[in-house]
Amino acid sequence: MSRVPMRGTVRRTAAANRDRFASQRGRTQTVFHGAVQIRLPRHAGCHHGPMRNGGVRGGRGACGVRRATDARPAHGSLLAALTTLTALVTLTACGGAAPGSGADVGKGARTGPAATMDPTRIPGIGDRWQRRIPADSRQVVAVYGDSKNASTATVVLYTRHGSTWDRVRSWPAHNGKKGWTTSHHEGDNRSPVGVFTLSDAGGVLRDPGAKLPYTRSAAFAAPRWWAKSYWHDFDYVIAIDYNRVKGTPPHDPTRPEGESKGGGIWLHMDHGSGTSACVSLSESAMAYLLRTLDPDRHPVVVMGDRADLKRSR
């Protein structure tokens, strides 16, 4: 037979519980919601501590936020607070903004290293090359080679508004099949590192609406004894002003610094592998650059392998 507690014992137990609950009023407990730490009032009736997963049951939602899918009724106030927090965290963790922050949800925000970059400089370009960008230039095509001996690269278009450089578009690209050099010469199969103006364009195809002077000519066509994958390389070209006379068609053969220094280095259409020294991009990328690069904005190309481009001297 079970023993029934005495009435005095019940009263003492109830009084002890009231004292224990009263002592917990005003205390706070720390819970972690996703990557966010918050402090909430400890629930007066919660004597077993916060539940795992920050006081809620359920798995992770989008962007690593834990969803409140189930909770004990005794945690009603905690659940309500976390439900509100979930909506706020979801916005900020996904690159948006909490209501009232003034930022546009969905546009994202710069975080980490990007937030501290100097907007008056082209990213990844050291002082050696940065100071060679003409003061009046407001368009820069930056070619970031993957390494000194690699033929793969990334091309990024930047435009300047006031003193700030803004990234506009980027594309995968190829450069010289043997990589890059700061002392280019004819036949080395390396692209020259440096800062060069962009002043003339042309190609086999009709003018797509270029702002640079555009020369259409069948003389640009690749020789038919080349591999077929190369036949459309020069449908669109933009001359890189390395060892050439500005203001002439890209295929003008004049080389002011002599034949040994090479020449005829262009931005042109890609055939899927390295070039002799040019930089190659997709047809859509070339068409975009032709329609965008504006002689009134004094466009230049800054090109080289990433390590060399970062040099300060």
Features:
313 residues, 9-stranded mixed sheet, disordered N terminus
In short:
The chain has 313 residues and is an alpha/beta fold.
Set down the secondary structure blueprint.
Layout: H1 7-24, E1 28-33, E2 36-41, H2 76-93, H3 127-130, E3 139-145, E4 152-161, E5 164-174, E6 180-181, E7 191-192, E8 194-203, E9 214-216, E10 237-240, E11 266-269, E12 279-281, H4 283-292, E13 300-305, H5 306-309
Parallel strand pairs: 3-13, 6-7, 8-9, 11-12
Antiparallel strand pairs: 1-2, 3-4, 4-5, 8-10, 8-13, 10-11
The total count of helices amounts to 5
Mean pLDDT: 75
| Secondary structure tally: strands | 13
Q: Span between N and C termini?
A: 94 Å
How would you characterize the overall build of this protein?
This protein is of the alpha/beta class. It is built from five helices and 13 strands. The protein has helices at residues 7-24, 76-93, 127-130, 283-292, 306-309, and strands at residues 28-33, 36-41, 139-145, 152-161, 164-174, 180-181, 191-192, 194-203, 214-216, 237-240, 266-269, 279-281, 300-305. Strands 3, 4, 5, 8, 9, 10, 11, 12 and 13 form a nine-stranded mixed β-sheet that branches. A two-stranded antiparallel sheet has the order 1-2. The protein has a two-stranded parallel ribbon with strand order 6-7. The longest helix has 18 residues, at 7-24. The N and C termini lie far apart (94 Å).
